[in-house]
Amino acid sequence: MRIAIAGRPGVGKTTLARKLLVENPQCALVHTDDYMNREFGIVDKTLIEICKNLDKMGRSYIVEGVQVARMLRHGDKEKIWYPDKLYWVEADTLVEPRHKGLTSLCFNAVQDWIDNNPNIPLERVYNRVNAFRPSESPKKPPAPEPIQRVYS
Fold this sequence. Notes:
Elements: E1 2-6, H1 13-23, E2 28-31, H2 43-56, E3 61-64, H3 68-78, E4 85-91, H4 100-116, E5 122-127
Parallel strand pairs: 1-3, 1-4, 2-3, 4-5
C-alpha cells in the first residue's frame, strides 16, 4: 500500500498521516518536510527513490508533505512512481503570503496528476479549523479549491 498525502502548507497533512499510521501500523512514514533543505530539483527525485526502495523491500508507506505534489508531477512525467491512493487535504485557514506560490504549485501539480490518473483513488479531506490571525477578519473562510474527482 502506497499512500500519498498532498496539500498546501498548514492544512493538516501530518495530522492525517499520523491518524492513518495508527490505523496502519505496518506502514513506514516518509515526511517530505525532512528533505526541504536539499538542492531544488533533486528533492522530489530523492523522495521517489526512497519510496521505490520501500517498494523493493515490500514495505507499505505513507508519504506526506508539500513536496508530494512535486513527487506526483515528476513520477507521472517520468512514469516511475504512482501512489495507490492520494489524499488531497484542504482547510479553511488563510494562505500565508509567503506560501502563495507553493500553494499554487501544489494545487496545479495535483490537479494535473488527477487529470492524468483517473483510475487511482482520490479522497478529499477538508479540515475546518477556523485558524485566522487576530488581525484578520474571519468574515468568510476562503472557498476550497475545486478537485474534480472524489472517492470516499
